[in-house]
Amino acid sequence: MDESLRIQRFEQIPSSLEFESLIQSTNVPAVFTGCVKDWKAFSKWNPSNGGLDYLQERVGSGIVEAMLSKSAPVFYGDLRSHERVPLPFSTFIGYCKQRMQNRDFGCANSELESHGLIGRDLEHAEDAPEQIYLAQTPIMNADNEEKVQLETLREDIETPAFLERKALASINLWMNNAQARSSTHYDPHHNLLCVVAGCKRVVLWPPSATPMLYPLPIYGEASNHSSVALENPDFSTYPRAKCAMEHSQKVVLHAGDAVFIPEGWFHQVDSDDLTIAINFWWRSNIMSSMEEHMDAYYLRRILKRLTDKEMDQVLHKTSSTIMGDMKRHICELPSNGKADHRGNDLDQACEEADSKEKEVPQKNLLQDLEPIALQVLHEIVSLVHDCINISDHSQLLQSTLIDDSAARVKGECKKIVPANLFHLEDDPVAKILWSLQPSTLQHVFLAMAYNFPRTLEALILHLLSPVGAEVLTRKFDEMDQQITEEDRNKFYQVFYGAFDDQFSAMDAILNGKESFALQVMLCSRQMCFFWNSMFVISSSITYSSAKCIFSGLLGGCLWMYATSISAVLGGG
């Protein structure tokens, strides 16, 4: 668990400013001990001290909406698992009293029957009182005053001082007469849950644990609830749920305590017999400032950030092993820097042809390369030779001496690197590039551009896989941070100047990079969760359909990179 996500417990109630700047702004839950002990409700609603009589007297027989569960003591948020039924408040209080007095529930069942509750999907009528839960019964509702059912209780509770500046969306009563468990869910508002009587045990997960909790589809009416059952979870259907508890935190709230649950944090609550709680909901600053016309932009930004994070994980999870393997491999090359005779023959052919094609604008960089860079250069040239099928070296030599050299080389070259190569450990070129320091990569590519431009062209146009393109652009980004603007512009001019069609090289790199990003998006754990929650994968949705949808959502995300390269090369 990230230490920044640890739940803190406060013995002193924070001020409004402290809560805003130190607690709410972090979007991490916090427990406030004794937060509501000064409320009238804390003393007057106590079931052990005549609180039930007081509540019945205040509210009387006013009708409230009760939650009738098919799976008590678990109360699932999905409408298929429960019913909302009208019930006189006094009747519910009667059940609570009978529970306290441990009486026979026969009389209570007759009252349930008189209100039409018996026989409604209940297997055992005598269990009905324990299946009733006053959940989210409104005391105040800013959007719908007509929905308020318990306004008379408002004067017994006080808005905590640190919430006085908040525009509250609603205040609700939660009351159960028997042990109850709420299903795992998150709220679309910030939440302060206050226990007036009894005890609640709350398990919390940060939004980053969402893939392990399998939320229901986003278009459904219970999209904020987990699909995983609390009792007898099906790990064959939801395998990631096995690890869910490793990412959770537990807090126990006694009477008088409160917990701040930020929006988006999943929570599951167990309540003891006769537990009474009040909660306050208010919109977060982020949600309050989100205008509808910005929704598409926010969605794209979130998708882009998730994709970037997944790409980092895909590359870095194997990077340490690959780095060690590549360093050992390079060090095992012959000390004279020659990879093998085939690579050397290709070097000589390219070098002779290129020397006749154009004069090298500066001294031969091969002499100045450090041993490690020279060895890497020969390794790359050897890979190009092995992967590109050249039938006759003399044809390659001739092709570099005529105007249509690029077309001739392209005609003879076969791109044998599969377009679906996305794993770093499977791509020898990507592994070499990943193992290099940016400065070494810069020197190697400059040497190739000056001495072996056709080999560089073949490498980029015919041998660069999607993961190789991603690695290459990351190395370019690292290099850009380490050199001056003048040197940066000069490098890209030389690098792209080695190609007969400079923009085809840029297209090859960008197309590979975008292909890698799309594959990561479609296959990663985080994005599989997003895909499932947004659209629900089924046999009728094909890979191409998914690609079209996500391409539409993320299309053009790399335009800034393309623009920066165009600025170096000139043009629009």
UniProtKB/TrEMBL annotation:
Residues 126-297 form the JmjC domain. It comes from the Eukaryota. InterPro entries: Cupin_8, JmjC_dom. Belongs to the JARID1 histone demethylase family. This is JmjC domain-containing protein. It comes from Lithocarpus litseifolius.
